[in-house]
Amino acid sequence: AVTWAGNLLWKVKNNTCPTGSICGQDPKLANMTLAAFDATPLTGSPVIDKVAQLVEVATDFLVRPRPAGVKSDIGAYEIQPAIAPAPAPEPAPLCTRAAPTLAVTGPTTPVAAGTANTYSVTLKNNDSAACANTAFALARTVPTGWTGTLSATSVTLAPGASSTATLSVTSTTTAIAGSYGIGVGTSSVIGATHTANAASTYAVEAIAAVAQVLSASQAVYTRGSTISLSSRVTKNGVAIAGVQVQFTLLKPSGGKPVVTTVTTDSAGYAKWSWASGSGPNAVGTYEVTSVATIDTLKSTASTTFAVK
C-alpha cells in the first residue's frame, strides 16, 4: 500500500492527484526555470505550513529549524519567521545651555547713613538636564566708598538647582539722603550665555533736624506786665507735639535764672507766661533761651525783650 503525504503536484499528466496531496495549485516558488531553479516559497505560497512535523526531519536543506511555523513547509526550504530589525538606539540627549536666573531682594525702608543692610541673592541654573554641573562666580557692585560683602563668591549648581547667598551692604556715614543702586552679577566658563545681573536699592534716610522759633509776644513791656513766650518745635519741617522744651530766663539785674519746662501742644507750640517785677530792678533787657530735645536730637533758640 502506498500512502502519499506532504506533496504538491502541479501540471502533471492527466492532472493525477494522489490522495493526501495538494494538487492543481501554483507552488509560487522563487524561480521555476530549470536552469535557475530556486525552491524558496514566495509569500502566499500554498506549500507553507501544510504538513505535520516529522520527528526525523528537524531542519531544512539549509539546516534551518523545521518547522518554523505551526506546521512544516512542503519542499526543501522552510520559511523562517521574519526577524524584526533591532530598534535604532535613542540619540543621546543634548546639553542646552541657558541664562541663569539671578535675583536680589532686601530691605527698602530708608535707613540712617552707615547702617548695614542684608540682601538675599538667589541663583538658579537653567541648563537642560543633559548638561554637567556648572561653577558660577558671583560678584557685587556697591557705590564708591561703601562696603559690600558676599557670603559666597562662587557656587556649583546642577541643572535646575538653585542656591542662596547674602550680600551685606554698609553705606558711608556721610552718604546723603536718597536711593542708591546695588547689584550682583554671575558668570561661568561657558561664556556670555551664563552671564546675568540683578539689582536692588539701598535707601538713605534724611538726617533728622529739629528746629525752633522762639519769640516774645512783644518787644517791649512795662514793669509788672505778663510776658508771653512761645517756642514752636518742628522736625524735618513738621510740627511735633509732646516735646519737652526748657526755658531759661536771665534778668538784666543778674541773679538766679528762671527755669521752667513746658511740653509742646498739637501745633508744636510750647508756651510760657512770666510776670515781671514792678520795681526799678525790673527795668532792662531780658534774655531767654529755649532747648527742645527729641531723642538724641536737640535744638536751641534764644530771644530778648525789654521792660521799661
Number of domains: 3
What value does the average pLDDT take? 93
User: What is the rounded distance between the termini?
Assistant: 171 Å
Principal-axis shape equals rod-shaped
Oligomer: single chain
In which order are the strands of the major sheet placed?
14-21-20-17-18
Write the H/E string, N to C: EEEEEEEEEEEEEEEEEEEEE
Total helices: the number is 0
CATH topology of the largest domain: Immunoglobulin-like
What's the CATH architecture of the largest domain? Answer: Sandwich
Q: What integer value in Å does the Rg equal?
A: 54 Å
Look at the helices and sheets and give the structural class.
mainly beta
Low-confidence stretches: none
Biggest β-sheet: count, sense, barrel? Answer: 5 strands, mixed
The CATH class of the largest domain is identified as Mainly Beta
Strand content: 35-45%
**Number of E-type strands:** 21
